[in-house]
């Protein structure tokens, strides 16, 4: 499935589709706890986890990595979504909280297919001045994500597409704007990434997420597919006689065309296709949970 991991000499490349949003101030952690779907109180400074922001109806607006630098400083590493629009929408909920929301245009997100120097699992390494490294490796190989003050780093479309394919293979949906506000955390199988909490206090969409969990109402989840030609986000997945679900994220790398789809857990074994193009189901890989 994934390519073999490269050695520690693997070059860094710009992840231009990832941006950093900083939450700073006395109430930064409390504000994040009230808005986002994972439990910020469970993080110590120097740790991170997957999280997201939901609509009141429990649909995912955006997924991101949330880093706790200090009790009054959090960073969101936001792939795919528009950081300016995201920040403006989040700002409407600040009210009297002592928190500042900034899009950090001075920070560059880089990737590398090699193990980090010090970061491991949910513990990141470094600081704002020297750069911060995250361990984004999994069973498919080693990866390092680095956030640093903007510097000249090569743009490598092939490496970036490989990075996106790795995400999909491990069940991390890369949500294009067309797929925002459509899916619940359970439909995106985000429990695999430990990306949401059903026990923390209130946050937008929490009631629907918790009810789905405790009443056992999750009927759909992610499945990974490969095809012989490029696939499109939002395309309908059909069985032999009926539509079963939709593609939520796609990636193409070195002739491999991958897609994550939301489909019923219980479905008869049958050929599946998108616009008459056959799909081959592949197992989701583990190891990206934090």
Keywords:
290 residues; alpha+beta; Gyrase A, domain 2; Elongation Factor Tu (Ef-tu), domain 3; 5-stranded antiparallel β-sheet; 4 helices; 17 strands; 13% helix; disordered N terminus; TrmE/GcvT-like; transit peptide; YgfZ/GCV_T_CS; YgfZ/GcvT
What features would you describe in this structure?
It is a single chain. This protein is of the alpha+beta class. The protein has two domains: about 15-160, Gyrase A, domain 2, CATH 3.30.1360; about 175-280, Elongation Factor Tu (Ef-tu), domain 3. It is about 15% helix and about 35% strand. It contains four helices and 17 strands. The relative contact order is 0.18. This is YgfZ/GcvT domain-containing protein. Keywords: Transit peptide.
Portion in beta strands: 25-35%
Any idea of the CATH topology of the largest domain? Gyrase A, domain 2
End-to-end Cα distance: 22 Å
Helix content: 10-25%
* The CATH architecture of the largest domain: 2-Layer Sandwich
User: What is the H-and-E element order?
Assistant: EEHEEEHEEEEEHHEEEEEEE
**The top level CATH class name of the largest domain:** Alpha Beta
By DSSP, the count of extended strands is: 17
Summarize the biggest pleated sheet: 5 strands, antiparallel
Cα-based radius of gyration, to the nearest Å:
19 Å
Shape: globular
Based on secondary structure, the structural category is: alpha+beta
Poorly predicted tracts of residues: 1-7
The H-level CATH homologous superfamily of the largest domain, spelled out, is Probable tRNA modification gtpase trme, domain 1
Spatial strand sequence of the major β-sheet: 1-7-10-9-8
Q: What's the pLDDT, averaged over the residues?
A: 94
InterPro entries: TrmE/GcvT-like, YgfZ/GCV_T_CS, YgfZ/GcvT
Keywords: Transit peptide
Protein name: YgfZ/GcvT domain-containing protein
């Amino acid at each position: 499935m994934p390519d073999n991991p490269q050695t520690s000499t693997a070059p860094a490349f710009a992840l231009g589709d990832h941006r950093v949003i900083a939450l700073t101030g006395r109430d930064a952690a409390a504000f994040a706890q009230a808005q986002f779907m994972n439990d910020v109180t469970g993080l110590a400074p120097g740790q991170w986890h997957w999280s997201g922001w939901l609509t009141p109806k429990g649909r995912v607006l955006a997924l991101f990595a949330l880093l706790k630098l200090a009790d009054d400083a959090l960073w969101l590493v936001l792939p795919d979504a528009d950081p300016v629009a995201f920040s403006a929408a989040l700002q409407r909920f600040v009210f009297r909280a002592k928190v500042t929301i900034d899009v950090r245009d001075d920070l560059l997100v880089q990737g590398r297919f090699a193990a980090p120097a010090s970061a491991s699992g949910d513990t990141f390494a470094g600081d704002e001045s020297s750069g911060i490294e995250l361990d984004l490796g999994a069973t498919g190989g080693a990866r390092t994500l680095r956030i640093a003050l903007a510097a000249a780093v090569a743009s490598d479309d092939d490496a970036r597409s490989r990075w996106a394919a790795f995400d999909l293979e491990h069940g991390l949906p890369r949500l294009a704007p067309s797929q925002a506000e459509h899916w619940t955390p359970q439909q995106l199988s985000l429990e695999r990434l430990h990306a949401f909490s059903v026990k923390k206090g209130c946050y937008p969409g929490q009631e629907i997420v918790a009810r789905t969990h405790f009443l056992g109402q999750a009927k759909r989840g992610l499945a990974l597919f490969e095809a012989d030609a490029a696939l499109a986000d939002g395309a309908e997945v059909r069985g032999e006689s009926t539509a079963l679900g939709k593609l939520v994220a796609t990636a193409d790398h070195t002739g491999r065309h991958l897609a994550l789809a939301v489909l019923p857990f219980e479905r008869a074994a049958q050929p599946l296709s998108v616009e008459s193009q056959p799909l081959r189901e592949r197992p989701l890989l583990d190891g990206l949970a934090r």
